[in-house]
Specification:
Layout: E1 11-13, E2 32-40, E3 43-51, H1 54-75, H2 83-90, E4 92-94, H3 98-113, H4 123-134, H5 145-152, E5 160-163, E6 166-169, H6 182-196, E7 202-205, E8 209-212, E9 221-227, E10 230-240, E11 243-248, E12 278-283, H7 286-297, H8 301-310, E13 315-319, E14 325-329
Antiparallel strand pairs: 1-9, 2-3, 4-6, 5-6, 7-8, 8-11, 9-10, 11-12, 12-13, 13-14
Helix pairs in contact: 1-6, 6-7
């Protein structure tokens, strides 16, 4: 079994090619399409843009690919040489990349706002459950309560010591995962590169979606939200202009054959949360949408609605296990 977390999204493109960018003032026919496809933090990713100068377009896409590779070497749990893996292995990291320090600070801000529902230090829980279900004779009821409590004792975002020149854990055995925010952060950084290069209309898909401007046909970028309870059906469509969208749900990474256990753990009890079948968040930045969708996915309805109302400028779609849909805009 793969013991590294990844989140398959229930976001799809409706009526638009992913990542199309258009140089202002010129028709689509006058542009060359340049495309990059690859992997970002263990997931499929793509960038496509139209540019009137093919060589310039290729240069921009190449710069984006280099930046993705650079950030992978900082944030990834999938690379043994990443800064994150080194931090988890040693429990401390001297002279950490500023991007890692900044992202952990941002993550801890969401942790504080959500009263710990979002917590990057849940990695010991993931490791426990992954090891358990990798066994041929694994109990279908999951790990023993004593083992869960032991792992949960290592969870606590306040026990991450953050300084510009050093990151460290206050408890031996702690480990963190940035999979609930790093895809969004990389999406934001690539979007910023495109904007600096003069691209004003683009939809970037790096595990999260962020749209700038609109589609070359003059319409907004339109994102289809699949129903997590009926995978072949669309639940809703969203117009995305100068905003990002992210979704979370336990459906994406089941740990057992029956889907009772998944990767979205409630840090409060160490168990997979079943508060929602799926959560979608629209926000200005991808990293914020990514982290908030993760936090909300493990929160009970009242707590979730309180967090949404405490945030500014976000839209949410909450799908309950019985299929009830709640939409809240703050």
């Amino acid at each position: 079994m793969n013991t590294k977390p990844s989140r398959r999204r229930f976001i799809s493109i409706v009526g638009a090619a992913a990542g199309v960018s258009l140089t202002p003032g010129l028709s689509l026919a006058a542009h060359h399409r340049v495309t990059w496809t690859g992997r970002a933090l263990g997931g499929d990713a793509s960038i496509s843009l139209y540019h009137h100068d093919k060589r310039a377009g290729q240069k921009i896409v190449a710069a984006c690919a280099v930046e993705i590779a650079r950030l992978e070497k900082i944030f990834s749990l999938f690379r043994r040489d990443s800064a994150l893996v080194k931090l988890n292995k040693e429990g401390h990291l001297s002279s950490p990349p500023i991007e890692l320090v900044s992202l952990i600070k941002q993550a801890n801000g969401i942790s504080q706002m959500s009263n710990g529902a979002f917590d990057v230090s849940v990695q010991p829980l993931w490791a426990l459950y992954a090891r358990h279900f990798a066994k041929a004779d694994a109990s279908p009821d999951g790990p023993e309560r004593r083992a869960i409590d032991k792992a949960r004792n290592l969870v606590g975002w306040r026990n991450i010591s953050i300084a510009e020149d050093r990151l460290s854990f206050m408890k031996s055995g702690m480990a963190i995962t940035l999979n609930g925010i790093a895809q969004g952060e990389i999406t934001d950084r690539i979007t910023d590169i495109l904007h600096r290069e003069g691209i004003r209309n683009t939809l970037v898909n790096l595990g999260e979606f962020r749209g700038m401007g609109g589609h070359p046909d003059g319409q907004p970028w339109r994102i289809g939200i699949a129903d997590p309870l009926k995978k072949s059906s669309l639940l809703d469509t969203l117009d995305l202009k100068n905003h990002a969208v992210a979704s979370s749900g336990g459906y994406s990474t089941p740990l057992d054959a029956e889907g009772r256990f998944h990767h979205l753990f409630d840090p409060g009890n160490g168990l997979p949360s079943h508060s929602w079948a799926g959560v979608t968040v629209v926000a200005k930045k991808s990293a914020r949408a990514d982290a908030l969708s993760t936090a909300l996915a493990v929160m009970h309805p009242e707590r979730a609605q309180n967090l949404i109302r405490a945030c500014e400028g976000i839209k949410t779609i909450l799908i309950a296990p019985d299929g009830t849909v709640t939409r809240i805009e703050s």
